[in-house]
Write a structure and sequence with these properties.
Elements (H helix, E strand, L loop, with lengths): L12 H18 L5 E7 L4 E7 L7 H4 L10 H4 L7 H11 L3 E6 L5 E8 L5
Antiparallel strand pairs: 1-2, 2-4, 3-4
Helix pairs in contact: 1-4
Amino acid sequence: DLAAHLPLVPMRRIAMKRVLTNLIENAIKYSDGPIEIHTGFEKGSKRLYVQVRDHGPGIPEQQMAKMFEPFTQGDTARGSAGSGLGLAIIKKIVDMHRGEITLHNHAFGGLVATVYLPLKAKE
């Protein structure tokens, strides 16, 4: 579900491609169903968002706060092995863009990752 006519966002394209690729690959890896991707624009906060949702087991709430730390994995709950660096790298890239990334479990199952990026300042 990609929104039409999104405003410009300053970004390093290769770095942001890595963020999106990692989020989508994680969603595919852990999903028991379709992957949902949504984009949109928050007018009040002047930022754009990209949201990726899987339909897998999610991450236990007590692990959620540590998921962006290097070598931390939610994989014990999600049944897979990995280095635990993916979300830490994503967070560094999003921070570099003065953005924000959040994770939460969806009420009907799965994990939702949302990346918020500030819009280009008017000149």
